[in-house]
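Q: Hi! First time doing this. I have a protein sequence and I read that you can turn it into a structure. Is that right? Here it is:
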Amino acid sequence: MARTGRNFWLWLVISVFLTSIPATIVLMYDQMRRLSPRRVARGGAAPIRCTHCGGVIEPAEADEPDGVALCPHCHLPIDEATVG
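A: Yes, that's right. Below is the predicted 3D structure, encoded as structure tokens:
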């Protein structure tokens, strides 16, 4: 880079900003979209958080043999108080 007259540190800073800022924005948008209260208003059910492993589960993913919802990650029963 020195041979071509380009500044290494300037291009390093430019490349970091041009890749990390859009990636951060996309990840934050995805996270906000998952946790949005409008999701429940649109007819979708709120996600469930497992009290044992902390995993986030969609209500459709919870197995319900014998009427007990099981976490697909740790296979332990999910308390009803954890909905929402």
